[in-house]
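Internal tracking record. Fields below are filled automatically when a chain is submitted to the structure queue. Please do not edit lines marked as system-generated. If the sequence contains nonstandard residues, flag them in the REMARKS field before resubmitting.
Queue: standard
Priority: normal
Entity type: single polypeptide chain
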Amino acid sequence: MYTRSTAARLAGFTVSALALAVFSGVVQAAEQPIVTEHVEVIGQAASIDQALKEQRSSDSVKSVVHADGVAQLPDENAAEALQRLPGVSVERDQGEGRFVSVRGLGPDLNSVTINGTLVPAPESDRRAVALDVLPAELVQSLSVVKTLTPDMDANSLGGTIEVESLSAFDHDGLFYSFGGEAGYDENTNQTSPKFSGAISNRFSLGDGVDNFGVAAALSWQKRDFGSDNVETGGAWDFEDGARLEEMELRDYDIRRERTGAGLNFDYRPDDLSSFYLRTLYSRFKDTEMRNAAGVEFADPQAPGELGEAEGYRELKSREETQEIQSYVFGGERMFGLWTLSGQVGYSKSSEDSPLGIAGASFEGNDDFAGAGFRDGKKPRLNIGDDFYNPANFTLDQVDREKGYTKDTEKNLRLDLARDYELAGYPAQAKFGGKLSRRDKRNDLEVWTYEDLDDFFSDEQLSLDQFQKGNVHYNLGRFATGISAKAIERLLGGLDRADFYNEEESRVNDFTISEDIDAGYFMQTLDVDDWRFIAGLRYEGTKMEAKGTGLRDDAFEAIERKNDYHHWLPGLHARYQLDKDTQIRAALTHSVVRPTFGQLAPGFIIDGDEASFGNPDLDPLESRNFDLGIEHYMGRAGVVSAFLFYKDIDNFIYNTDLAGTGAWVDFDEAETFANGDNAKLYGIELAYSQKFDWLPAPWNGLLLGANATFSRSDASIKGFDADSGRTLKRDIDLPNQSDTVGNLMLGWENDRLSLRLSANYKSDYLAEVAAVGDRLHDLHADSQTFVDFSARYFLTRNLQLSFEAQNLTDESFYVYTGRRGYNAQYEEYGPTYKLGLTLTHF
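SYSTEM-GENERATED OUTPUT FOLLOWS
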């Protein structure tokens, strides 16, 4: 945030006394008013104001986050920036925001586009795109479109997240920004670096002036961090009180590297034509070491009780590299009253996991006496010293895996619009079509090393031989670490082919192709203070899945096809109540295909037990109604309220079909099924304002707040073996939080910008248990994250920044049925960052 001025008198700023300098900057602003000639302002207010202008003029219900004038989003990555918007929350991985939920609907029910083309998902089983793979430096704006017009893909129930990257036409002339940052993780006491840069300029081609633009951005970050975890997996026996069957302590040590690059070109040969090429590359490498120590009680125990238990140690050591590539070429040309536009897009996502240790388990040589725990929420293991003696454990089994997933999407879109008058009112007719071809392939290879005592002596397999230092664990006493290299050296003398797990390797492989042909017609009409948009979209889908099943030790090739067609009408209305107030209403339809994990054709049938995917699943269909009002109040100011209602058919859930239909003689038949109907309804409230009419220094205050209150109703069915009946029960939609809210308090002047923000998400249903076993449903507890950031311009072009994330050391807690019974508890600790940015604009 900076204002070019003819005069400014401000206090000095020192890195070593950041907190004092922040305070003194505010005080001095009060004592010495600044005489300025406002030429250009960038900062929190300017960024919010740009976003609100885009939101205000949109034909859809839309929320926007805009980078400020130095191409900086308000948060570290795209996911965490989006969580500040009304109705948006994030799923976190190791404390970092990754996947985005909109209006309580899970990330797989939303879509992500980069520069207008769909982003496929790197993970083998998901459609959701982890937005932390997109460095903030590559993004110019982020939008969440909550009501889809007929010219948009209909593949989102909550919202479509639109990512726009940097363009040379975002700035006048030469622009550049280069920065460095150091981050400190309090949990692991590790310091991590980050470097980034962006540059753009315009050039003159032919007879034009500044009609060709080039923009480039690059970002690299390495982060060393970790978390401490204790979990039961929901292994509580509720038949006789609440007794725990097993528990496990986990320590995560992670190195995460992000690399992102973008190169964009814009060409505007005249006032009637424009062309662009957008390219983006993102690489996300995760190296994880997980040490675990656990017990299985001989009999379920209550807190404080002691008994015998089996003990074990485990190690997981893996590396995953996710890559996203996106290439988009498009343009627009006007021919009188006609406008022709088109786009060709290609995106590819992949996840490569080289050979690693998926699990190495060391079993206790004997049972451990006097074992117990205390505290049902954050269990603390109570056990004798023998449990911590490595000589009492022997290597039992090692699973090694490598895998590769690739997801590609190619599309071609063409739109034609004509402006005309209808009964004397401005109107536009628009029609077009889109062809999309998507292919997802998953290849997993598994080796299972068991019966190791046939090859090695007891001494060679003793945990004594695999120790690796102490584990940094904050939730109690932990054993020494385990060396992955020592395990790999031991197994190196064996012939890997002798341990190939053909079952796991073949059944988890699949290829799924998804071809979508779409066409639409849309009519826009402006009548006095009204704007109406009505239209119809058609989407036809052809899905083909190929894989392998295993039936009683015999492999079977599987090929399944599924075709479906959807006609999706839509109606939008916007009424300008006065120059600053408008009312919006929308009736829309959307369709979301099942995830690839749900569609995977592989199966395993072993006697009377079966598990399988379901390629015959129907897509989710939703009828959506939105009604709201927006009132804009000067610079960076808005107050709004929106009601929304979604009527969803065919929602998908886990189920057990044992005892029914073709599975009548089975004890277990786990798969996915379509539910009948679900409803989601709620209200979004938002407020933002800069108090620039107040006397200094209070004229630098900014306040932003939003809250979304929602409810959902759904029902599931399943066969209950104990009663011999098909049961039905009501549930909330999985991953749907009833309350999501944000509060932001900011202050800024010509050089200093401060922001304190809080993000709240209420508890939600994370996993549904058997239809007759509500007590074993898993619920994620509510979370509140508090962050602070400060920016200070040492000079007009040099900015110092400080960030403190997760100031309250918020944890992640999942409970079983009721809040007092742990399924998973995880702590991360705060993170602090100090950075320096050089900018020319």
